[in-house]
Design goal:
The chain is mostly beta strands and 281 residues long. The protein has 5 helices and 16 strands. The relative contact order is 0.19. Keywords: Signal.
């Protein structure tokens, strides 16, 4: 998965969106309310207008004004637990830590992944260290350097005959661990927030042509306002096709205890009994 970088935004859209943020009302619906932005973060003007609006709706300026985001995750696929633990990530995604409930720790230092303890049997450590934090922070990463956006198009999501806007996201060569990945990003037409992403997985040197035979999608719901930033508390995973949209559900995740914290000296320091997983490994 790709680690996306920094964000800028044109003055007129800043005036339009920086003055408001969505919060939950008593019926868990998103509505607009006043907010004051005190940082100087800007969003790029070369993004498609719908994506400019999306990142503003998620209050990206508040997000990047913070240092570290952390959250608990319970992730299930095909009825089995895939991940249970706590994830810490710098808001710029340059370092990530996954503390599993079984005591295993994965640490991404910007290049390599370290596993503690070194005796832990862990297939796909690098994938887990990078993927789930990316999914959680996706709305705040859409303007990173190296991202490429297609033209907005209409395609199904929940119903084959009900079309809604989607925009294809791909990446320049050499960006992240899987530059051949692509996403179809669906914007919720009512809230303007991220509703879903269809995607392929080429991680582990899977050829794009092979990955495109088995595309999936993740949907986002249960949005919460966390110190101004809008973060999803529920994910669902599905098989997906461009012709029909969502198909069979494959899994789901619950995201809780979302908060911003300050970085401590030892937060991203590898343990004493640690195995290194190099880039590409």
């Amino acid at each position: 998965m790709n680690i996306l970088k920094q964000i800028i935004f044109p003055f007129l859209l800043l005036c339009l969106f920086a003055c408001s943020k969505p919060v939950k009302d008593e019926q868990n619906e998103i509505k607009e309310t006043e907010v004051v932005n005190e940082n100087n973060y800007e969003i790029p003007s070369d993004l498609p207008p719908a994506i400019q609006s999306l990142v503003a709706k998620h209050n990206i300026r508040e997000f990047y004004d913070k240092e570290i985001i952390s959250f608990d995750i319970e992730l299930f696929f095909n009825g089995s637990e895939r991940l249970n633990g706590t994830i810490y990530s710098r808001t710029n995604s340059s370092k990530v830590k996954v503390e599993k409930a079984d005591g295993t720790v994965l640490l991404f230092d910007g290049k390599d992944v370290f596993i503690t303890p070194d005796s832990a049997q862990y297939k796909g450590a690098r994938f887990d260290a990078l993927t789930w934090s990316y999914f959680a922070l996706a709305p705040f990463k859409f303007a990173d350097e190296g991202t490429k956006w297609g033209e907005p198009t209409k395609m199904p999501l929940k119903e084959p005959d009900s079309l809604q806007q989607a925009i294809k996201l791909s990446f320049e060569n050499g960006v992240g661990d899987a530059p051949d990945d692509w996403y179809q990003v669906y914007v919720n037409p009512e809230t303007g927030l991220l509703e879903a992403m269809a995607y392929i997985v080429t991680f582990g040197n899977t050829p794009r042509e092979e990955a495109e035979k088995n595309p999936h999608a993740i949907t986002y719901s249960d949005y919460q306002t966390v110190q101004g930033a809008i973060v999803a508390g529920k994910w669902k995973f599905y098989n997906w096709s461009q012709e029909k949209g969502l198909a069979e559900q494959l899994g789901e995740a619950t995201i809780t205890n979302i908060k911003f914290v300050e970085e401590t000296e030892d937060l991203f320091t590898p343990g004493t009994s640690t195995e290194r997983v190099p880039a590409g490994g």
